[in-house]
Amino acid sequence: MKKLFLISILISSCSVVRTEVKIENHIKDVLTNLKVKNIKTSFSLLIIGEPGFSREFYSETLGDYLAKKGVDVWILTPKEKNSFPTVFSAAVRVITTYTPHDETFVLCHGFSCLPVLESSTHPRIKGIFMISPPLFSWEWSETFKWFVSRYESGRKIEETLDETPTFVKSQKKTFELLFGERFSKEEIGFIKRNMKPITDDWIEYIKNYIKEEKTDFIEKFCKIEKPSIAVAGQGDGFIPYWTSIPPSLYRKKCKNEFWFFGRANFNKKEYAHLEMFLGEDAKDEIFPYIYRWLKFGWKKTNWMRESAGFPGENQ
Amino acid sequence: MRGGRYILYLIIVIGCNCVLPYYFYKVDEPADAHYFVETEDGWKIALHNYKPSEIKYKYPVIVCHGLGSNRFSWDLGEKSIGKYLKKKGFDTWLIDLRGSGDSSKPSPFNRYRYDYNFDKYVFYDLKSAINFVKEKTNSQKVFWVGHSMGGMVIYAYMGMVEKESLKAVVTVGSPVDFVLPTLLYKIAHYTKDIVYGMKFFPVRPLAQMLSPIGRVPLEQADILVWDSDNIEPSVRRRAMANAVDNVSGEVMKEFVMWFIKEDFTTADGIHSYKYALKGVDVPTLFIVGARDGLAPPQSVYEAYKLLGTNDKKFVIASKANGFRADYAHTDLIMGRHVEEEIYPLIENWFKNHQQ
Hints:
The complex is a heterodimer.
Chain A: E1 5-11, E2 16-22, E3 30-36, E4 43-48, H1 55-68, E5 71-76, H2 84-98, E6 104-109, H3 113-118, E7 125-131, H4 142-150, H5 157-161, H6 174-179, H7 185-193, H8 200-211, H9 218-222, E8 228-233, H10 241-244, H11 247-251, E9 257-261, H12 280-308
Parallel strand pairs in A: 4-5, 4-6, 6-7, 7-8, 8-9
Antiparallel strand pairs in A: 1-2, 2-3, 3-5
Chain B: H1 2-24, E1 33-38, E2 44-50, E3 61-64, E4 75-76, E5 79-80, H2 81-87, E6 92-96, H3 118-137, E7 142-147, H4 149-161, E8 166-172, H5 183-190, H6 192-197, E9 200-201, H7 203-210, H8 219-224, H9 233-242, E10 247-248, H10 249-261, H11 273-276, E11 284-289, H12 297-306, E12 312-317, H13 331-334, H14 338-341, H15 343-352
Parallel strand pairs in B: 3-6, 3-7, 7-8, 8-11, 11-12
Antiparallel strand pairs in B: 1-2, 2-6, 4-5, 9-10
């Protein structure tokens, strides 16, 4: 651990030790590591946060849950889109060099999954868990398109979110329509505290992506040679579940998995974009699902791939 | 003897529960005229006409219900597409497909049996009904709006029978893909043997029996049928008492076959209704609910994509798109705000395609 420059060490109330680690001297981004003291971790996981949210947003929600389950959790929210491949490789190198784990799982959220797809061939990745990845660009909601058009460099994200588009009849705040309506005041405060400015290259990347209707990442997702899964919330107004799990995905006989959370799958509710991370329901339904997949689920996928093969794979 | 008495009481209670709600929650019959047309295979199909005092549009509108339902699903008193379109000047016709509503229904006392499948709707009922309406209104073409299976039958009709009679079409929550990653779809796989063994599904008495508690939001109904918050309790109760009809086992078998084969085909599995849409150039509006558990946007999208015309539109009814709610399957036809949000979409589509 000599090369690691420890910026600070914070000990949370639940004995999860949070360490901030500088990746490399020339890289601005910082990794957050969550670990329960004196517990031998079973595997490591690198969470790639969505641009616009801080590392704390993930460390105090899903990260905290998984760390208590004995997962060696690392969190990265890449500042710039253009330097993502370099930062990602360096982060994986840090994790696999300075922990007992030779490989790491990667979990990404929303738009951060697109550059992860590009870097999915990294040999040290054990499996990929994608939450609300926009795999197929179609039928964005009017609110989302409006939000992206209003959100410009230098403008505070809160300013945009506090406005209401004129076409929304019920005077619902943009924030609620995009991220979820069932948050308590404390949770909304937590989300807003953990929102951070997005760099120009991320804004440009997202704008271009949604402008080009029907940009298709399904092929890339299905070709990932590691156990992978894409999940979505049925009530997501930011990245709707039909963009995460589009029809072409299940028709392709994709060897990687996909699933969505909503009442149609006997969940307690149709999960919105940030409800997958916040609230008691997420702790009961989403987090255990993620943990189970990381611990056991990926093996099933892997086993199926190696022994049985998938329809069309050998054609 | 005492046991026999209790059984008699039970039969009376169940009987009353099945019959009485229908009379308590009966929907007044507001249609102006009722017609019956005989199909080529001898079934009587009911058509209910709403005729405006002044017909403003050249083509009549035929409105079709979904699986296990009848015309009342579109016509529940204050929620009535018939009344709405009539007010706007459309000559409107609500159809009861065979086995539902006022059309011929199988019973031990007549010659009709639950031996009909989805294909019979397409090749016999629609053909007769469309020809009859054309003749009655002296019109070359008709508009069609169908909910759920009511839209699926018109996909099939346009692709396999003929499309020349259709001026424009609106489908509301009508899927062509049946391979979504939901547990409900998986259940269809596991229960196929039960379905194959059933002559018919007696959902009408069941719904009528449960209609007195239709005001109570049920989690199961919320998953499958509607979002309780988005439909008035009184409407739910009336829908259960009036708008549900028994389903033929053969129709269900065909649905299960589509789930298993992951295709939308004729009963013999030879001809694909889905891919036949490539040859259809009828302007079509697809309306889907963002929270529809039975026909989610993904399951309808393929129909939109395959349809062989550029004059088509895909609308997802969601809050983020400016609607007042994220619509579920039945909300799309009897939800709280259909008169302000869904009916006008249908009206405008037909209005824009009248020439």
